[in-house]
Design goal:
- InterPro entries: AlkZ-like.
- The chain is an alpha+beta fold and 397 residues long.
- It is 42% helix and 16% strand.
- It is built from 14 helices and 15 strands.
- The N and C termini lie far apart (54 Å).
């Protein structure tokens, strides 16, 4: 692209975020599938995040749980599986092959090699790679017969899953591990099994397993191009650092994919080079009016970019992040994080502003209405983030 690069300033980036991340009222979705398609991926490490992230973006939030369970467990239009950075996400089922080929295959090879090494070493050679092949074939056959099953149910069909080995013998982190716990994670990364319906309510982290639905095997380069195209359409402009962090790829893979899709370089406020798709170079209009949102911990918008200063002031991070870099529940106003929220044991949704500039009575009223909207569809369901942050702990006490 010749000539001077277009600058996409912070205000336009926030407008893009509001509309493409379906946060402004006029951009809200009708179904969870629309939300997931717009965001590419919903963080699934904390089961509640999936529903809370969808509910924040649905026009009819009251039906969040029913619609989410329909998509995940009845029609299977959404699938919970391992994706970028060895993390569990919820994707549109149509992207499963793309995610697996673009990010899962490399991780899977390393995960299986580590399991075999740890298992053989930790059992003093009693458990071998050949033995593992027999066990996993038997376990997958049992899972296919059952349709969905917990690990406990599978071990009744294949007792060898209960075998144990010592991980990190002689080291400070030495621990006993079962074959089942490690094997199911490896099979998940390999795209051979997916999470099924939870044992409890929608907030439960105890899942059944199911055989992964069949999907085509794609060339890695083609899959990386497709995933990058989807993500830039949702989150562009993004820097190479953003893309490398979000995908978990090597920088050379990011650059190759950017070149292959003809991504267009632009600048963002501060002077950094970022990229958008070739179809996305025109200015984006602001939302129709001011907006507020209460997003959950690990929300894909709050965690969407590595470089976050344009929507999250560095001074807010100590209160809103845990020690491992996981974001907690956040309050948003017009495309920037201004505070956090929590749910108390009595069911009340409480929030606090950490930035108050420009937020008077009218603006606080809009934020309060969003808190009421969230509380109404939660309807008494207890929700505690898996990764707790200082502000969330304080507010929920």
């Amino acid at each position: 692209m010749g000539g001077r690069r277009r600058n996409i300033g912070t205000e336009e980036r926030r407008s893009r975020l509001a509309l493409r991340q379906r946060l402004a009222p006029q951009a809200r979705a009708v179904t969870p599938e629309e939300v997931a398609g717009s965001l590419v991926a919903l963080h699934g490490t904390d089961p509640a995040t999936v529903y809370l992230a969808v509910g924040a973006r649905l026009a009819d939030a009251v039906r969040t749980v029913a619609e989410g369970e329909r998509a995940l467990y009845e029609e299977r239009t959404l699938v919970r599986m391992h994706g970028m950075r060895h993390t569990v996400f919820v994707f549109p089922t149509g992207l499963a092959a793309v995610v697996h080929a673009s990010t899962g295959l490399t991780i899977a090879v390393k995960a299986r090699a580590a399991l075999v090494k740890d298992m053989v070493t930790g059992s003093e050679g009693r458990l071998t790679a050949e033995w593992l092949s027999e066990v996993e074939a038997s376990a997958l056959a049992a899972l296919a017969r059952r349709g969905q099953a917990t690990v406990a149910e599978l071990t009744r069909d294949e007792p060898r899953l209960k075998e144990r080995f010592t991980y990190g013998a002689g080291r400070s982190y030495e621990a006993e591990q079962t074959v089942s716990s490690r094997l199911m994670r490896v099979l998940g990364v390999e795209g051979r099994v997916v999470r099924g319906r939870p044992l409890g309510a929608w907030t439960s982290s105890q899942f059944r397993w199911a055989v992964a639905p069949p999907h085509p095997v794609l060339p890695t380069d083609a899959a990386q191009r497709e995933l990058l195209r989807h993500w830039l359409a949702a989150c562009g402009p993004a820097t190479e650092a953003d893309l490398k962090w979000w995908t978990g790829w090597k920088l050379t893979d990011v650059r190759r994919a950017l070149a292959a899709i003809g991504a267009v370089p632009v600048t963002v406020d501060g002077g950094a080079t970022a990229y958008v798709t070739a179809e996305d170079t025109e200015p984006v209009q602001s939302p129709a009016g001011p907006w507020a949102a209460l997003l959950p911990g690990l929300d894909p918008t709050a965690m969407g970019w590595q470089e976050r200063d344009w929507y999250l002031s560095p001074g807010l991070r100590p209160a809103l992040f845990d020690g491992s870099g996981n974001v907690g529940p956040t309050v948003w106003w017009n495309g920037r994080v201004v505070g956090g929220w929590a749910r108390r044991p009595d069911g009340e949704v409480v929030w606090r502003l950490l930035e108050t500039a420009g937020l008077g009575r009218e603006e606080r009223s809009v934020i309060g209405a969003e808190a009421d909207r969230l509380g109404s569809w939660l309807a008494g369901t207890p929700v505690t983030p898996r990764f707790r942050t200082p502000l969330e702990k304080e507010l929920s006490a």
